[in-house]
Automatic annotation (TrEMBL):
GO cellular component, one term: cytosol
Pathway linked to the protein: Amino-acid biosynthesis; L-methionine biosynthesis via salvage pathway; S-methyl-5-thio-alpha-D-ribose 1-phosphate from S-methyl-5'-thioadenosine (phosphorylase route): step 1/1
Name used for this protein in its record: S-methyl-5'-thioadenosine phosphorylase
Enzyme Commission numbers on file: 2.4.2.28
Similarity annotation: Belongs to the PNP/MTAP phosphorylase family. MTAP subfamily.
Amino-acid positions noted as binding substrate in the UniProt annotation, renumbered to this chain: M188, D212, Y213, D214
Site note Important for substrate specificity, residues: S170, V225
Function: Catalyzes the reversible phosphorylation of S-methyl-5'-thioadenosine (MTA) to adenine and 5-methylthioribose-1-phosphate. Involved in the breakdown of MTA, a major by-product of polyamine biosynthesis. Responsible for the first step in the methionine salvage pathway after MTA has been generated from S-adenosylmethionine. Has broad substrate specificity with 6-aminopurine nucleosides as preferred substrates.
Residues bound to phosphate: S12, R54, H55, S87, A88, T189
GO biological process: L-methionine salvage from methylthioadenosine; purine ribonucleoside salvage
Amino acid sequence: MTVAKIGIIGGSGLYQMEALTDIEERQVETPFGKPSDALIIGTLEGTRVAFLARHGRGHTLMPSELPFRANIYAMKSLGVEYLISASAVGSLKAEAKPLDMVIPDQFIDRTRSRVSTFFGNGIVAHISFGDPVCQQLAGVLADAIENLDLPEVTLHRGGTYVCMEGPAFSTKAESHLYRSWGATVIGMTNLPEAKLAREAEMAYATMAMVTDYDCWHPDHDSVSVEMVIGNLQKNAVNAQRVIQSVVQRLSQHPPESDAHSALKYAIITPLDKAPAEAKEDLSLLLKKYL
Ligand SMILES: CSC[C@H]1O[C@H](OP(=O)(O)O)[C@H](O)[C@@H]1O
Ligand SMILES: Nc1ncnc2[nH]cnc12
């Protein structure tokens, strides 16, 4: 049964959605363990949505410790089809200034120890990931931001998000390297999430909120947690306004997304011969194809 078609993953600084009503807190178990925290199901703009605090509501999980598979599987188990991420990022470009919002359309993977696939154990799939963000959902996000006329916020449509391992922030040499690659922003969480969301056939897009200039900018101090949280607190109200407007737009006009059939040509193992246990663990993802 579908509980919510829209899911929201709140990152650093966005641990709850104040406008949710008729709230139900659900502890979800998955074949991949427990999610970062309980899923908070509530009504926003007349629509049921599911919210998850990515690092837990008390921010107790490091990026490398995040149970990405459980988080995405839990959203899938509630029937989520559109997954919106809110994230704090460092800016790698002068024009993307703190408090601005970026809707990335590309990622560069600089992680080292993340499990970013549901497959294995006898079932192999290779999803297409040339366009890692759902452009329809990204468009809804960007349109919502543009129409809200948020004070102090400039919107940047498109851009490349470097996903680093962390938890330490980058060195200056790394930061300059990523700039030389043309990257726009840097964070520690979005890439595994985007891959798993694609495998789970959910449309995924991220609202990246700039909190700092990382450590490359000659006129700005190097990033610190204090800087990130200070700017995010200023932006948490804006972020919730954006999400509210996105939910309204999505419920009125749910866009078609290629992500919703991402596994159609991705599974290479004949499923009739695949191990029963792997099929059982992935049944939620595979049931259309069995
Ligand atoms: C608290 S600064 C570093 C931390 O913030 C970002 O988290 P999220 O993407 O969940 O907003 C960044 O990726 C790091 O995990
Ligand atoms: N400069 C930065 N590097 C990595 N993750 C971040 N999150 C917020 N700012 C960041």
